[in-house]
Amino acid sequence: MKKIIILISGNGSNLQAIIDSCKSGNIDGEIVSVISNKENAYGIQRAMKAGITTKIISDDSFNSREEFDKTLFSSLMEIEADLIVLAGFMKILSKKTADHFYGKIINIHPSLLPKYPGLNTHSKVVKNQDIIHGVTIHYVSSQLDAGPIIAQGRIDVNAHADIEELINRIHQVEHIIYPKIINLICKNDIYMENGNVNFKNNSHPRGYICNSYEI
Ligand code: GRF
Question: Is 109 a catalytic residue?
Fold first, then answer.
């Protein structure tokens, strides 16, 4: 069974969806560790409740960014996981970490990349009166939110949508597609080869249309 590490910084609702999917057998993998860079991240409680090993690598407890990066890198090396899942991890990985684990780290980002990399995606959608919004799951590279795209989930946005509503609807999509994609990666149905994302014959999950789920 594939070993999964999950990196979080906050609430951990995606972590919860992944925990639930592992428990119900919908992900053919085991979460071996949850690492947070924030001591008070609620996701840590979720992990502990599920009996998963947790680790805090708090950015406040290091004198430099380099020390933090070194500690995170050696923790990831030590655990020897098959897959590293960023689930609301609000820290940019060092180039060394991103390069070393290239093809093994995935992230979920709340926008239809390449549109809106970085923060505050929902407010940008509202401000620009976009009519569609969504989430992107991608392999992590050393360029922020720019690694190869694995899948996207799309929602329609109505003219009166506010940020709260978008956050909720985006979370609903995330909780469906992130576990599905993680399962496909655990089964080797999705993999990276020569920098490209490959899907083993017709392994696309139900609802997967043109690289996008419509919810
Ligand atoms: C998600 O919206 C994810 O796309 C983004 O951070 C948020 C984390 O939410 N990267 P949660 O902590 O999983 O509830």
Answer: yes
CA-CA distance, 139 to 194, in Å (whole number)? 13
In short, whether 87's Cβ falls inside 6 Å of ligand 1 is yes
And the tokens for 192? 């990276």
Closest C-alpha to 15, from 85, 76, 72: 85
As given in the structure block, the two tokens for residue 10 are: 């906050």
Beta bridge partners of 86: 7, 107
Domain ranges (residues) in the chain: 2-202
User: What is the model's pTM?
Assistant: 0.94
Domain 2-202: which CATH class? alpha beta
Torsion of CA 157, 161, 163, 169, to 10 degrees: -50
Least confident window among 3-7, 203-207, 208-212: 208-212
